[in-house]
Amino acid sequence: MNADPIAAETVGAPLSRAPLGSVPGTWTQALLMSRYQFRDYLRSRRFVLMIAIVAIIAALLSTAVLYFRPAALIDSSLAFFGTFWVGGAEVLIIFAGIIFGGDAIAGEFQNKTGYFLMGLPIKRWSVYAGKYLAAFAASVVTIGLYFVYIVLFGAYFLGSGVFTLALFESLALALLYLAALLGTTFLFSSLFKTSLYGVLVVAVLFLFGFSIVIALVEDLAHIEPWFIVTYANQVIAYPFGSIPAHVGRNFAGMKTYAPTYLEGILIMLGYFLGTAFAGLGLFEREEFT
How far is residue 140's CA from residue 93's CA, in Å, rounded to a whole number? Predict the structure, then answer.
């Protein structure tokens, strides 16, 4: 019997010459998954909703600044971006995590799409990583739009002085916080099989739940709440010179805490790695029926 010439030709061939029907590698699968998921995000109502949130924040900010024209803010690039960029970015990051990541994994169980997806020769790691990358990319697009707006709006008052190293340093810290928040969001999304539960838990925790926990830990336990990810997002404002004391006192004389620069970065990085892998572990063990 003669050997199959096609099989003989493809042995040891590079990926670009792989035969029809071959299974892509793990990273290739993840990138393909992220590509199509990202495209779906851009065509979805949730992306329109995020754009609307960006537009509302921008409109409110423009109206307030142009009407009141606070000299203390519009005459200094550090004060301007430390107030308007940091405040808007923190809100947008939370909404982006809720909208793009809240049901990213839970929806596979609720909509039964995971049952058919897992029947394909694709690894769960690739599905999880692809969805995370797509949610991160969609969030970056919306936050990037706000960043462009705030730079142009700042240039109206400050001229070319808006392009400072502090602004881009703060942007990098905001993206790290986004990565940590999405990791936590994906963890809760993997924990539930209903999209509504995943979205509600994430919304409650990040909108006011973690803030209440931080206040209770500081006021009652009198310890630093370094284990809460929202405690670390204060470092986004640090490049603009607004670095508070690590340990201070509030108006009532109660002890308050603020993360150091390095501590905030390590907390966000730890949350990103820890929650991402924990969520992946839950997703690997779940059964689709």
Answer: 9
> What are 142-188's pLDDT values in tens digits?
999 999 999 999 888 888 767 788 999 999 999 999 999 999 999 98
HEC string of 189-254 equals: HHHCCCHHHHHHHHHHHHHHHHHHHHHHHHHHHCCCCCCCHHHHHHHHHHHHCCCCCCEEECCCCC
pLDDT tens track for 28-42: 888 888 898 899 899
* pLDDT at res. 56: 95
| Backbone φ, ψ for residue 206 (5° rounding) | -85, -25
Beta carbons of 157 and 73 less than 8 angstroms apart: no
8 A C-beta contact, residue 276 and residue 183 = yes
b/e map of 82-94 (b: 16 or more CB within 10 Å)?
bbbbbebbbebbb
What DSSP character marks residue 23?
P
Q: What is the pTM of this model?
A: 0.86
